[in-house]
Queue: 3 jobs
Job 1
Amino acid sequence: AVPLVVAKSTALSAKHGLLIKNRTAFENSRKITTIVFDKTGTLTVGKFEVSKIVLLDKGVDEKELIRLASALEQNSEHPIATGILQKVKDLKITIPKAENFKAITGQGVEATVAGKKIRVVSPGYLKEHKFTMPDGFTANDSETVVFVLIYNKLAGYIALSDKIRPESAEAIKTLKDENIKSILLTGDNNKVAASVSKTLGMDSFIAEVLPHQKLEKIKELQGKGEFVAMTGDGVNDAPALAQADIGIAVGSGSDIAAETAGIVLVNSNPKDIASLILFGKATYRKMV
Ligand code: ADP
Ligand code: MG
């Protein structure tokens, strides 16, 4: 009888937007005490729109700043890149060629455009490389910001906004009702993370984390006795997903993430995670 109940549950869960790749993951879902959520595309819609272009140096204008950034971003699949490329398209700007493109893991991109070394990077990258934060830096709480560097000069920044998914608040609330803590873990900046976590009533947030730090964070929580589920979409998330007690790959993310995870969240809807847990609890109650 046991396998039958589980088989039925697994089929049902597929209908609810979940792909359970191994039965242990489903069985263990009722033991979860903490869920670590990634932000972009899971708790938020994952569609960035350029909201502001701010100049920090007189050498370039707004169009030139985003034109240079777009040269790099055409080589990236990050949602930030998609947002910047959309804006450039709207402005009917022709994207120049970039050479020696390199992704700076979890922090940005760099390349050479018309002989100039250009970087498009996170505030965390600037701190790490000892750049002084510009006075004109006034991005608001809900904005993601990327800085454009020409050689070693801060030329300006591009602010982008994403929206919280309408289902996220209810998902977090359901988890809270089940005594499950929710933590936001993101490579995005502190302000954005604080704002999303507060809006959704999450227990805490950790921002500006680099890919390897995600793994460390999961270990740390496990060391405190937490049974940890984690969501993620990127190649970068794979080690942390593997370390978590239950790895949940989100939506149309990377194949590597999906391979590593025990569960795939097909519609990227955080409410499906809450359903899964309630469902797991109900299923295994029946079997006792
Ligand atoms: P998350 O944890 O939300 O998935 P990532 O690790 O993908 O975040 O990215 C962290 C940060 O690195 C972004 O918020 C951004 O500042 C910077 N970044 C990453 N990729 C790019 C890119 N293609 N262009 C500009 N900035 C990027
Ligand atoms: Mg990501």
Note: Residues 50 and 160 are 4 Å apart (CA to CA).
Job 2
Amino acid sequence: MDIKSAEFVISNSDVAKCPQRPIPEYAFIGRSNVGKSSLINMLTNRKSLAKTSGRPGKTQLINHFVINNNWYLVDLPGYGYAKVSKSSKKKFQKFITNYFEQRKQLAMAYVLVDVRHEPQPIDLEFMTYLGINEIPFGIIFTKADKLKPKAIERQVAHYCEVLLKTWEELPPYFITSSSKKIGQDEVLNFIDATNEE
Ligand code: GDP
């Protein structure tokens, strides 16, 4: 898929106020600092479509972008940031679950995980939540430039092994690096194929 246009539409914290066009939507989510904003910028060939932030956990909104005038890319807030209060964590959980449980246009969620890290309970629990709610998801491994190819292979194989303890099948997964522009075609072509289904 070529990116012909990528435009910001709206940010909000209420799923009812998300844009209403009946076009497919792909949501990107992951722990704060996983590289989500950088990935969105890399996928869309834009320098700062999504705001990379030095302060993790700051962008607590659902951000809609329209790509090629025919699908939405959604930048969801990063989760798992330790320095927010319990009450704001609860509020956060509520609006994210509202989003996932109510958003009709949602075709697929992409859960981002840092390829260097051990599988984290918060990510695995989130995938289980998606599974329970029958929301298709894929995994995007980020920051692949930080490891040598053999180490990436090892990390990904280990992640798959852990997933297969609870899942019968592996979700689609992608190995990416925003700084080295790795994985752009794979992710965009997968979205293209899903749009055509
Ligand atoms: P977000 O909080 O998930 O949106 O993460 P950001 O995109 O703001 O990135 C967090 C940090 O990781 C920043 O310092 C980025 O420069 C760095 N980063 C993001 N993607 C990559 C990548 O592919 N490779 C490397 N080496 N660093 C990255």
Note: The mean pLDDT is 91.
Job 3
Amino acid sequence: MAKLSIRSVSKSYGALTVLDDVSVEVEEGSFVVLLGPSGCGKSTLLHAVAGLNPIDSGTIVIGDRNVTNLPARERDVAMVFQSYALYPTMTVAQNIAFPLKMRGLDRKMSDEKVAGVARLLQIEPLMSRLPRELSGGQRQRVAIGRALVRDPRLFLFDEPLSNLDAALRTELRAEIKRLHQSIRRTMVYVTHDQTEALTLADKIVVLKAGRIEQTGTPLSLYDDPDNAFVAGFIGTPR
Ligand code: ADP
Ligand code: MG
């Protein structure tokens, strides 16, 4: 059974159709990348899964629960955004612990979980710093830590690396891959960057103007694109 099923989801803003009958199956523990140019509807689709934005029609199933009409807090997903949105007056440790505090977890349990996340992301030396004392890459690691500590059944990433310079992007990309290989949680990752898609994905969904152009493994899209758009976007000459 798929961990996440997006079934025939459509959404319009007035006359603009942003998602047009989009269906995606995400297997348990897999890494799926939604790839497409700016404005094609990637964030809208991810927000629909997270429950941050209502859809006009279609169904979203996470695990065995139809979550289409559930509010975000009942969906058990964690999202990492492009901008890091850390609390500026809290230390790294307090930022990561915040979702646990909100859930009323006791201090000892919380400290243990935060320490585990810090170890996994190799940010132990940063724990008492404030966000303004961190580099962009370190901030994004903390944002990932804050998602991880909740131990959600589904991780959603919306262009998490696009504010970083090229060298940091490569480094954090490798780290996200390592993270997925070590925890094997279901992850859905949005990007317009072909290299990110090809290196991270088990499966890539190529979107254009709110419609799916092609779905497949990185290799199958690269070797056997269905059309000129996919070929051009993935970067193979035809
Ligand atoms: P992407 O993440 O792929 O860049 P988005 O999902 O953010 O694309 O946006 C898809 C389209 O929907 C764009 O044309 C965008 O301008 C439009 N859009 C997004 N949010 C709104 C909104 N709240 N109201 C009107 N149009 C929107
Ligand atoms: Mg977007």
Note: Strands lie at 2-13, 16-27, 31-35, 57-62, 65-66, 77-80, 154-158, 186-191, 203-208, 211-216.
